[in-house]
Every structure is written in structure tokens, then in C-alpha cells.
Amino acid sequence: MRRWWGFLPFGAVSVIHLAALALGSQVIATPTKALLMPALLLALLVGLPRIRSEIALWAGLALVFSTAGDILLGVPGEIAFLVGVGAFSLAHVAYLFLYLRPLRTRAIGWRGLFYVAWLGILLLVLLPHIGPLTLPLAAYGLLLCGAAAAALGTTPIIATGALLFLTSDTLLSLKFFVPGFSLWQEDVLIMLVYLAAQGLIIAGTVLAAQRRAAAPLPT
Predict the structure, then answer these.
(1) Is 59 within 8 Å of 45 (Cβ atoms)?
(2) Which of 75, 94, 95, 154 is 20 to 30 A off residue 145, Cα-Cα?
(3) Is residue 73 domain-resident?
(4) pTM, whole model, 2 decimals?
(5) What is the pLDDT of residues 174-211, one digit of tens each?
(6) Looking at the predicted structure, is the pLDDT value of residue 219 above 60?
(7) Rounded Cα distance, 51 and 146, in Å
(8) For residue 217, what is the DSSP state?
(9) pLDDT of res. 128
(10) For residue 219, is it within any domain?
(11) Does the residue 54 lie in any domain?
């Protein structure tokens, strides 16, 4: 249990950031957003039995690219938005390698069709509104749904985190591009789902690595 203390800074920064969003305090929300994924990276490195491992590599890269995406999506302008989407695309590529290589424990099977349907419905809703952004956003959606499907081959905790990641980005895309779409405290809600997603993915990754390290060697 001693290795789980690393999640405390992530939890603290998350609470402060969400409270700042709810209160409309951008002075606090902006810097704390940039600290969220570095705090989760600390939790990953503290929790893993071995820092020099394939799990640490892919999960660490995913969090580094997520940090860049978090920062860039807060910068005004289309170029910053596209570069931010690119950063998150690289994060999902890293997660894909994490799910399909060191963490894979079972077949994905027909369950992956759920995410094919999700992507199809989302694109049908967004296409009338995204114009020249169709290609990059469709490619990002494919990566996002592919990562969520790949997570089905890992553990239930990680798969739930990947589903929540897809949910948060779906809500974010509807907020950005669909006229009239709104939710109560939507910024807080979307960020809450995103933080739960990333937290569950990393917690599940740490737990899987710890269980693997504790498993007796075959004789």
C-alpha cells in the first residue's frame, strides 16, 4: 500500500482545479491544469515496481503528451487547437502500445464493435459542423475509439478508464462544434470525467504491474 501515496498529489491538484473551474477562477484553473498530468506521472513512477520497463515507457509517454495537449487546448486559435489534438493523438498511440503489448491479458472479441458504433454515431453528429477539420478530427476519433477498444483486452479498471476518456472527449467535441449543446457546469463535468479516466487508467496500470511483479515465477 505504501506505493499508492503517489496518487495523493494528483488527487489534491484535481480537487483544486475542479473547484477553480466551478468558481470561475482562471487564475487558479490555468496553472493547475498544467500540473494535473505531471502529478499523475509522479503517481505512476512511485507506484510501478520497475521504472525501467515497457509499461513505464508507454504510460509515461501518454502522460507527457497529455500534458502538452492539456496546455495547448487552453491556448486560443485553430493552430494551437490542432497541435493540441495532435498531442492527444500521440498520447492515444502510446496508450495503444500499452494496452496491446505489456498489459494485454485477453481477447477483445465482439465487444470492440461497441466502439465502432460509437465512432460512427459521433461522426454523423459532428460532420455537418466541422467542415475543414473533418479529416484530423475523424483520425483522432479513430485513434480514441481504437484505444478504448484495445483497453478491453486489459483489465476492467483500465477499460473503464478508457471508456471515460472517450466519454470526456465526446462531450468536449459536442461542446466545441454542435450549436446549442450545453450541460450544467459543463467545464467541471468534462474535466471530472477526464481526470477520472486518466486516474483509472494509471491506477489500473500500476495495479497490473504490481500483481505481475508479485506473481510467483513459473517452475
Answers:
(1) no
(2) 75
(3) yes
(4) 0.94
(5) 999 999 898 888 999 999 999 999 999 999 999 999 98
(6) no
(7) 27
(8) P
(9) 93
(10) no
(11) yes
Please tell me the distance from the alpha carbon of residue 182 to that of residue 192, in angstroms, as a whole number. 16
Angle between helices 26-47 and 186-214 (to 10 degrees): 10
pLDDT at 121: 96
* pLDDT value at 1 more than 60: no
Residue pair 207/49 in contact (Cβ under 8 Å)? The answer is: no
Closest C-alpha among 97, 198, 85, 214 to residue 153:
97
Q: Report the C-alpha gap between 181 and 160 in whole angstroms.
A: 25
Rounded CA separation 172/166 (Å): 10
- Other Cβ atoms within 10 Å of 172 Cβ, number: 17
Q: Specify if 27 maps to a domain.
A: yes
Domain count, the chain: 1
- Domain range enclosing 96: 2-214
Of 19, 2, 3, 8, nearest in space to 205 by CA: 3
DSSP 125-181: HHHHHHGGGHHHHHHHHHHHHHHHHHHTTS-HHHHHHHHHHHHHHHHHHHHHHSTT-
